[in-house]
Each structure stands twice: as C-alpha cells, then as structure tokens.
Amino acid sequence: MEQAQNVTAVPLPPGPDGLPLLGVLPGVWKDPLGFFLKAAVDYGPVARLQMGPKDFYLVSGPEEVKYVLQENHHNYRKGYDQARPLFGDGLLTSDGEEWLRRRRMIQPMFNRTRLSFFSQFMTQATEEMLDRWETLADQGIIDAAHEMMKLTQTIIVRSMFSSDVGEEAARLGAAFDDTLEYLNRILFAPHPALAELPSAATRRNRRALAYLDAFIYRLIERKRASGEDTGDLLSLLVLARGEDGQPSLTDAQVRDELMTIFLAGHETTANALAWTWYLLGLNPDVEARLVEEIDTVLGGSPPAYDDLEKLRYTPLVLHEAMRLYPPAWMFVRHAIADDELGGYRIPAGEMVMISPYVTHRLPQHWENPEAFDPERFTAERSAGRHKFAYFPFGGGPRLCIGNNFALIEAQLILVRVLQRFRLRLALVPGSRVIPTPIATLQPKPGVPIRLERRY
Predict the structure, then answer these.
(1) In a domain? residue 144
(2) CA–CA distance, 252 with 270 (Å, rounded to integer)
(3) How far is 209 from 259, CA to CA, in rounded Å?
(4) Cα 207 from chain centroid?
(5) Is residue 71 part of a domain?
(6) Torsion over CA of 115, 332, 334 and 264, rounded to 10 degrees?
(7) Can you tell me whether residue 159 is helix, strand or coil?
(8) CB under 8 Å to 299, separation ≥6 — which residues?
(9) What CATH number is associated with residue 36?
(10) What is the phi/psi pair of residue 99, to 5°?
(11) Can you give the pLDDT at residue 264?
(12) For 65, how many CA atoms within 13 A lie in the half-sphere containing its CB?
C-alpha cells in the first residue's frame, strides 16, 4: 500500500448517518464498544464517523492498521496533547527526533538482564499480597480488579524507586490514583472544555501533581548527588550519559519519563489480569488445564523469571484474555498530510482512531470471536493470521516499550496466585461485569471473587 501523492479526488470513507451537530455521539455515549465494532463490521476497514463538529476515521482492518502504525507511520503523529500536563514530553507524547532519541536510550532498560532484576519486585510483592489473602480467605468476597491494581502499583513503584520510597509508598500510590482519575476525565470528555470545568477531580489532580513533582524532583536531586546505581528505573534514567559524558536527560525529562512509565504501565497490566481472572472464572476447563501445566512444570516451587520459558499454555491464556479485553482498547493518531488508506481519503489534520478491541473481534479475521479459546494462539492456528489482527501493545516503531515487562509481570502473578489459591467468580445472580472504556478497558463494577486455599 503506497502513500498517495494527490488524493483530493479520492472519496471519503463511508460511515453511519448522524444527527445535526451531534453526529453519531449519542450512539458512542450509549455503547462505545458496541458502536465502534458495529461501524467496522457495517462499513469496512476504514469508516468515517461524525462526532460533534469533527470527522473521525475508524481504522480496523489489519492491513490498514499496519499502514498507519508501521508503513507510513511518519504521517501519523500521536494524539495525546491533552495529556501533556501529566506526561510532559515523555515517550507517550513526544514525536520526531526527540522521541527517537528517548526511545533508543530507554529501550535497554527493558532488556533481559534488567527484566530479570525487576522480576524480584514482581515476585516479592505478589507473595506479600498472597500472605495478606490468607487472612481474607474466610471473610467473604473481594474484588480481584482492585487487588490487581494495588499489586501492579506496588510493583511499578518499587521498580521505579526501589528502596527510596520508604513510608511514602501509600501516599505516592494515592497521588498516582488521583492523576489517573483526571486522565480518564480529560481523554474521554464529550467536549474538551468540559474537562476544564472546576471539580473535585480537578482539585485532587492539582494537589497530586504538586506532590508527585516535589517527590520525584527530590529523589532526582538525591540520586544525582549520590551517583549510586540501585538498578531501579530512577537510577537508569538519572545516570544515563551521552557520548560527551554529560547526563542524557534533564531533571524535567526524567520526571516526564517516570510519570509516563507509571501512568501508562501499571493500570494496563492490572486490567489484563482482572479480565483474565474473570474469564477463568467463566471457563473452569481452561483454568484446570492452566493449573495442571503450572503444577507439572513447577512442582509447587514459586516461579522465577527463567521458569516462564518452560510454560506453553500460560502465555496463551493471557494473549486470549487481551484479545477479548485489550487494556489499551483505543488509541489515536493525527494525519499530518492528506493520505489514501484502503481506497479512501484521509484529510490532513484529521484524527484516526485505532481500536484493538474492534480488530480483535472482527469475524473475518477471528473464528467465533466472542469465545474464550486460548488455543487459537498456538503456532498451528496462528499460521497465516495477519500480524496486525492482534496488537494489544500497538505496533510498528511505537510498539509499547514495556510490553515484555507487562507480560512477564502478568505471568509471574498468574502462576503464583494459582499455586496458592482458586479464585471463584462470585457474581450475584443477574449481575454482569461490564467492560467500561475510559483510558483503559476496565471491568465495572469489578471482578468479585471468593478465595479458596489450595493447601
């Protein structure tokens, strides 16, 4: 698929009719996931959606997704300008040469050696959670989604700051929670102006950002003064040096990357695990096979980083959970110049929407797409499947830099939990867990479970 040089005569994509002024927004507000999926099925791999005063372009076909994210990615910049107060100019929001420089510098921080080091935080925090669960197992129902959020938050904070956090860990986590609440508000407000209205969430966000900035800058100053490499992400960012021997990142740039790593990282993994527990609760045959593999391969020993490559079925379960409920359910790009995509015109300046949730459920690419079937990710059944039919971490040059961190974290948690407990889904008759698309795809009102000790 080659970029068109003159596309003014190319037709715009088809799309559903909308109301005056509002366009299709009422349908989006009512059921965003269902609306976008139906639009892709009804109108094809590129669909035009009038949402308020602007047109948006939903790109769902794997070949078209590949074109935007990989083949012609230079023409599609990221669209998270509203999040800059939180992320600054970190990897998520930066573009061009500055993004490339940052990416090349940060990528080694997620190599095999570093991931093995970070895995100790993952296993230690998981063990602490499970010890706490021992006191909860006889006390009724707990929310697996909340528990996974607390766990992954602990892991990412320790990975970023190691022992420097100390007694401030709880306050730090609460501040990050307040910024996440505000991020959800500004990214998916019906109109940008509404997100700026005074509110309790806005006030909490201001206080949280002031605290986080003061905390992070204090640690950066301390780290620069000591020069001690404790192996955490703060050390790696602060102590990175260019060819001239000077620091590669300013204090503000270190702050931006730490905020990006936290806010773009821990919630996605937590939601992936929450949906995994939900799906396992609905599919006891899959859970039984998963437990059998874990017991056979590990024999009751707690999992370590090097054990993960011995597991075959476990990663398939996680991949299938992220196919059905990808935490990063939607992301956007802005077209820099006019382009042709799938035989249709994408005007310069317009916003392109790409939804893994939608593409992962297209019936022309997935047999029985609503079913939970981990074996669809075996090598035999994956053969011939388009690479961009499944992309929970994005794709192309801007593939999520923390994808391996997230997969290792999720597997270590999943394995160790199932070695010690069974998580029995405890839905009230007639109730449902509903996927709620905000900044990430969250299970609402949560994933209620009843703990059963294995031994």
Answers:
(1) no
(2) 28
(3) 10
(4) 25
(5) yes
(6) -40
(7) helix
(8) none
(9) 3.30.43.20
(10) -60, -45
(11) 73
(12) 30
As a 3-state breakdown, the chain gives helix, strand, coil percent values, each rounded to 5, of 55, 10, 30
Instruction: Tell me which residue range forms the domain holding 355.
Output: 1-82+333-371
CA distance 267 to 278: 16
Q: Is the peptide bond before 32 cis (omega within 30 degrees of 0)?
A: no
> What residue has token string 């300008």?
81
Q: Which tens digits make up the pLDDT trace of 53-89?
A: 889 999 999 999 999 999 999 999 886 666 677 777 7
pLDDT given at position 348: 95
* CA separation, residue 373 to residues 368, 369, 378 (Å): 9, 9, 10
- Looking at the 3D structure of the chain, how many domains does it have? 1
Tens of pLDDT, residue by residue over 206-227, are 898 899 889 889 888 988 888 8
Residues in a beta bridge with 241: 247
Q: Judge whether 218 lies within some domain.
A: no
Confirm whether 326 is domain-assigned. no
Q: Are 179 and 201 in contact (CB under 8 A)?
A: no
Amino acid identity of residue 54, one-letter, is K
Tally of CB atoms within 10 A around 208: 22
Angle between helix axes 403-420 and 251-282 (nearest 10 degrees) is 40
CA distance 144 to 142: 6
The pTM assigned to this predicted structure is 0.90
